[in-house]
Each structure stands twice: as C-alpha cells, then as structure tokens.
Design brief:
The protein is α/β, with parallel strands linked by helices. The chain has 2 domains: 220 residues, Spore Coat Polysaccharide Biosynthesis Protein SpsA, Chain A (Alpha-Beta Complex), CATH 3.90.550; 101 residues, Serine Threonine Protein Phosphatase 5, Tetratricopeptide repeat (Alpha Horseshoe). The protein contains 14 helices and 9 strands. Helix 2 links the parallel strand 1 and strand 2. The N and C termini lie far apart (73 Å). The N terminus is likely disordered.
C-alpha cells in the first residue's frame, strides 16, 4: 500500500516536471538559404545555451548547397529539419517554423548570426519576473563585419513598456535574432509579412507593439554578422520595404508628421544612393512639407538637397565617408 502511494507521488512528480518543461519550452527557428558554410556557427551557439529547454527548427528555404548534410550532422534529436522545395523568402521560412513550433516562446536566429551563451536564460528569467503584459523580451546586439570579424557597432536596448510610438520612428529592437516572443501573441498578429524582403523586422515590431508591451535585457547577447551583397539590390529592397510599411500604417504615421518626415529623409538618402535624384527630391519635398520648422530636419534636408545636385562620383564618395563616420550607415551601405 505504501509502495503504491510512493509510486503515485513519484509519477505525479514526473508529470509535473514534464508539464513544467513543456510550459517553458523555447522554439528556436533558424531560416536558412545556401548558408551551409555558416549555419554550423548558429546551431552551436544554441546548443551552448545555459538554458537547455528548447527545440531547434531549421527551415531550409530551397537551398542548393549542402545545408541538409550540415544540419543533420549535428545528430541531436532536438533539431528538426524542414525544407521548402522552392525559395519563398525569409519571412515565409520563419512562418513555417512558427507553424511547426511546440514551444510557448519563439526565438528567431538568422543562419549567419550567433547568440552568446546566457541569452535565452536571461530572457526567460525576465519573462518570469515581469508583468504578463510583456510579450517581447529583446537584448543588445553587436554588428560584426563577416569578412574580417571587425566589430562595427554595439547597441544596448533603451525602450521598454509601450513602445508603439518610438517603433514608428526607429527600429530600436534590432534584428530578428534578438527577441524572445510569446508564441500566442506572434500567431495572433499573423506572423511575418511574406511580401517584404526587407524591413520585415520593423513591420513585425510595429504590429507587436500594438498588442503587447516589451522589455529588454541590458546586455549584448547577439552577434549580428553583416555580409557583403549587391548594394543596388540591398538598397532597392530597403526602399520597397520602407514604402510598404509607411503605406500599411499610413494612419499611424500621419498622426505623427515629424516621424513621417524623418522616414521620408531616409527614403531621400536611399534614392540618392541609387542615383535617382528625381525620387530623392520628391521625398525631400515631402519631408520638408511635413516638418518645415524643425531646424535639425531642415539642415538635414538642405544637405541632401545639395547632394542631389552633385555628380554621382561625389555622392558615392560622400556615402562611403559617412559609413566611416556614422556606423548606422552600414545598415544601408555595407562593405
């Protein structure tokens, strides 16, 4: 009789432990496309986490390299490999991962980025000690130039609570590799916008900020690697993404004309980089019309107007110089 009683208690304890493990499970989603030479670094950084209650879902977005062999070579039953037969884009790959996730929390990790060992543990602890209104916990990040591992910039988070206004002005959350998000909140807003090949992170932060509050761990826990690519393609995608986000949330931006003016300045710069002076001046005029009495914006506008009158070679030299002076330009104009 006593042995049966002890056995019942033991079984109850095991079930409770399993429920607890399931309750706090993190689904780590790694979208990948032809990054067989890089993804090992990302997976190793997850397996090295001090918080070990996770699953890893690698979504191969139609790769033609040896990605499958690299992933399955880890021989860890927590790693799930899913393949798209055709390339559908990073947002679609992430959404596929979310649809197959079993965890309460979702963490995205780009296949060329890496986490520091305590990232997940510190985010989970913050979730457990803060208000239930918190739906996103993000961290600081470090930009590293992939070709030579030179640290370009480091950023510590600044925004917590209701960040819906500040998110319209700037993408203060960082890359998709930084946040830990409650899955139910992420699915309630429909996941990522698959029509965006750029600015999808900004779009996601805007929608999340409408339905939950955010908090952060004030430490750099993510290494974000900047890879070289076609400058024209990179800038074109940023233009398309920015214009689409501005259109999607038109009423929000119109309620904050100074913020919209700042976004038009960004589009002014992007079009100048592509040497499209007509479009650049178009957005410059729109920026000034929204915020004509802001001295800071006025001087920025004046500088960009002068630039639009200069030869192409001079503008290229100027943007290369700005990248050296202001590291934020790496976001627009990487090596």
């Amino acid at each position: 009789m006593i042995s049966l009683f002890v056995n019942d208690i033991f079984n109850s304890y095991i079930l409770l432990a399993m429920d607890t493990k399931t309750e706090n499970l993190i689904s780590v989603i790694i979208p990948a496309y032809n990054t067989a030479h890089l993804i090992g670094r990302s997976i190793k950084s997850v397996l090295s986490q001090t918080y070990q209650n996770f699953e890893i879902i690698v979504v191969d977005d139609g790769s033609t390299d040896e990605l499958n062999e690299v992933v399955t070579g880890f021989n860890d039953n927590r790693i799930q490999y899913i393949r798209h037969e055709v390339n559908r884009g990073g947002s679609a790959a992430r959404n596929t991962g979310v649809q197959n996730a079993k965890g309460k929390y979702i963490a995205f990790l780009d296949s060329d980025d890496e986490w520091l060992p305590e990232k997940l543990e510190k985010q989970i602890k913050l979730f457990q000690s803060t208000s239930s209104n918190i739906g996103v916990v993000y961290t600081g990040w470090r930009w590293i130039r992939n070709k030579d591992n030179v640290i370009i910039q480091e950023k510590i988070p600044m925004y917590r609570g209701d960040v819906s206004r500040i998110i319209l002005e700037e993408d203060g959350i960082g890359s998709l590799s930084t946040p830990l998000v409650k899955k139910d909140i992420l699915t309630s807003i429909g996941g990522l916008d698959e029509k965006l090949s750029s600015r999808q992170d900004w779009d996601l932060w805007i929608r999340l900020s409408k339905v939950c509050e955010m908090d952060f761990v004030p430490e750099i826990l993510v290494n974000y690697y900047l890879r070289s690519g076609s400058i024209s393609t990179n800038v074109y995608n940023k233009i398309y993404g920015t214009e689409r986000v501005l259109e999607k949330y038109k009423s929000d931006f119109l309620s904050h004309p100074k913020i919209l003016s700042k976004q038009y300045i960004l589009l002014t710069i992007l079009h100048l980089i592509l040497n499209d002076t007509k479009k650049s001046r178009f957005y410059l005029r729109k920026s000034i019309s929204l915020n004509p009495f802001d001295i800071k914006t006025y001087w920025k506008s004046f500088i960009h107007f002068i630039l639009s009158l200069t030869p192409v070679k001079f503008r290229e030299w100027f943007f290369h110089l700005m990248r050296r002076i202001n590291k934020d330009f790496y976001w627009i104009y990487p090596d």
